Amino acid sequence: MSSKKQEAERPDPNPDCNTMARRCLHCGAEKTPQWRTGPKGPKTLCNACGVRYKSGRLVPEYRPAASPTFVSAKHSNSHRKVLELRRQKEMQGAQQHQFLSQSSIFGASNGGR
Known about the structure:
This is GATA TRANSCRIPTION FACTOR 9. This protein is mainly α. The chain has helices spanning 3-9, 47-54, 79-111, and strands at residues 36-38, 41-45. It is built from three helices and two strands; from the N terminus they run αββαα.
């Protein structure tokens, strides 16, 4: 066996020394088969988020299912489900906007007395 091969197989005697815990800036994952480039630079996204970022589909509602920040009511790893979550969020925002505009109309007419 060559010395290079032996070095590669030998575990690091102190794995926590000199290594900082890396986290995906989008989903918070610490373990990934490959770190990828994101909007903040190289090796800032996990493999799953990096692939989505590169294809232009990285949105706030997307999370890998294994992500520590995954909440099924807010996130999905399915593009179809992400689109559904976004549509629901937009409808809620439109309803809130409509409610606020109606309440300000009623508030203005009562305040003039």
